[in-house]
Amino acid sequence: MPLSRLLPASFEQPNPVNYIINSDMEVSQRGTSFTTASGYGDYTLDRWMSGHTVTGKFSIAQVADAPTGFKHSLKATSASAYTVGTNEEFVIRQKIEGQNCIPLALGTSSAKTVTLSFWVKSSLTGTFSGAFLNSAENRCYVFTYAISSASTWEKKEISVALDTSGTWLTTNGIGLTLYFSLGAGSGLQASAGSWISTKDLTTSSSVNLVGTNAATWQITGVVLNEGSKAETFKETYAETLDKCLRYYQKHLGWITQFNRGLDNNYDAHVVNSGVGVVGFMRATPTETIANVYRWDAGDSNWTSDSTAFSAAISSSSQTFVEGYYGRQSCNAVKADWELIAEL
After folding, report:
1. pLDDT tens for residues 317-339?
2. pTM
C-alpha cells in the first residue's frame, strides 16, 4: 500500500506558503478609500502600497466586488487622461520581508521557481505588466499578462525562475518587492521575461491605466507560491490580520484610566501611559497619536484636548509604547494610536 494512503490528508497535501500578505484584500485598518497624496508611496489596504511620481493621478479603494470565493478587491481608478513622463511611474506594490524570503534562495544558484497568480478586472483590455525587484532596485524581472474582456474577472498565472545573482536581503528589511504597473514611462520600460540589472516596471506595449480618464483596475486573490504551478491558498481573516499587525496597528479610542493618588488628585504630576503592542512588530514602531479627549473629575462627557496627551515617545519596545500626560484632576484620557513598523 502506498505510504500516502497511510498518512492523514494534512500530510499528503501540506498547505502551500503564500509570500503575499492580505492577498484577498480583506484587512484595511487605515480605511477603505485613499488618494495618492504627497510623497512617492502611501500604504492603503494593509501591506499594499501605492507608488506615484506625480500625485493625484489615481485613487485606491477597498470594494465589495470580487470573483466567486472572495469578498473584496483593491480597486484603482484613474483621475484623468494623463500622459506619463519618461521616468514617471504609477504602481501598486507589496514589499515582502527578507526573513520570509529565505526559503526562496534568491541570489544563489539554488534560487527557486515561483508562480504568481491573481484575479484581475479592468475597464481596459490589452497587455498589462508588473515586475519583481530587489531592495536596491538594481535587479528586476518584468512580466506581462493579458486582459481580454473589459470589466470581467480573469485569473492569471505567471511562473518565474528567481534570480541567481544580485543582492537580496534575508533580514527584516525588504527581501523582494512585487509591482503591478498602472503606468510607467519609457525610462522604466524593458522586455519581459528575464532578470536585468536595472529598475524597470513595464514594457513599451503595456497599457497605461492613468492615460485614460476614469479607467479602473481591480485585483484580489494574489498568491506567490514556490513551484511552477499556481496553488490554492486559504486562511481566515484572523490569520491574515495577525500577519498585518506585524507591520501596522491602529488602536481606536484607547482609554487610559488614572488612579486617585494619596493627595486625592488624579495624576497630580506627569503620568506616563500608553498602548500595548499586539504580538511582535517587525521593528520598533513609530508612534502617532490623534483625536485626544480627556475626562476631568466631575465631568459628564469627554472634552477634546489636543494638548492633553503628547505624541512624544518616552519609551518604545515590542510590548509597550508610552506617551506623556500632565494635566491635574483628570480621570481618564482617550486617543487613537498608530504604531507603524512598515517596510
Report:
1. 667 676 665 656 667 778 888 99
2. 0.91
HEC sequence for the chain: CCHHHHCCHHHHCCCCCCCCCCCCCCCCCCCCEEECCCCCEEECCCCCEEEECCCCCEEEEEECCCCCCCCCEEEEEECCCCCCCCCCEEEEEEEEEHHHHHHHCCCCCCCCEEEEEEEEEECCCEEEEEEEECCCCCCEEEEEEEECCCCCCEEEEEEEECCCCCCCCCCCCEEEEEEEEEEECHHHECCCCCEECCCCCECCCCCCHHHCCCCEEEEEEEEEEECCCCCCCCCCHHHHHHHHCCCEEEEEEEEEECCECCCCCECCCCEEEEEECCCCCCCCCEEEEEEEEEEECCCCCCEECCCCEECCCCCECCCEEEEEECCCCEEEEEEEEEEECCC
Q: List, in order of start, the domains of the chain with CATH numbers.
A: 3-244 (2.60.120.260), 248-340 (2.60.40)
